[in-house]
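Margin note from the TA: students keep mixing up input and output lines. Inputs are the sequences; the output is the structure of the whole complex. Example:
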Amino acid sequence: MASIVVFSILAVVILGSALLCVTTKRIMRAATYMLFVLFGVAGLYFLLDYTYLGAAQIAVYAGGVTMIYVFAIQLVSKQTLQGMVEHIKCSRILQGLLLSVVGLATVAVVFLKNCFISAATTDELPMDQIGTALLGSEKYQYVLPFEFISVFLLACIIGGLVVSRKRED
Amino acid sequence: MVPVECYFVLSALLFFIGVYGFVTRRNLIAMLISIELVLNAVDINFAAFNRLLFPGELEGFFMTLFSIGVSAAESAVAIAIIINVYRNLKSDTVDSISNMKG
């Protein structure tokens, strides 16, 4: 019962912030609302007893990615700070609404045609199980993607530096 | 215990809010923020389905974990490109990037 109440609060926060995020005219406010959405999603992970995932979500998304966005917004233009006046065409809103409603209807059809069999959940996922699965090389263990993602992050750092560097020509 | 359908409905709604934002906004950073919403919706699905339907396994958990890392890298590169676009074109809307239009 308590978890349903917590879920409802989180759902209202997530959906409300997401709606405000895509409808607000000011880009700085959109970034702030995105931060609320990310915190809400982290709360969902905590509710699912995936504590490690929630901590990673807060550390990487809310701490890292949002900071990158705020820096970019500050760097890109002054007028976005005072409130960007973005003219959204009416036809484009209709187009977006149509696309979303059609997609949502498709998902709803798929959803209503299936029934889900919930399994009995266990307690909180222990950290040593996550650690052995993350760094083991057996079946159902994930050391290869782990190493790949570290190389990938390095490549992205170098790529980002190369792309955003000032050209001396 | 929250039923898995609730998570499904929530993430479907979040996904299509993100799609709506991606279609309507023309500012590059706003479009990127909408993509983040879409990615988060998918992550919720992975985690909830793993936890509530297959609690003994960890595939969805690690998919979500790696997806968080990949989207962090993606947004860093995308921001670098956006800053570069702004430096060259003095504009931050997608309509201004038309050099490679056929």
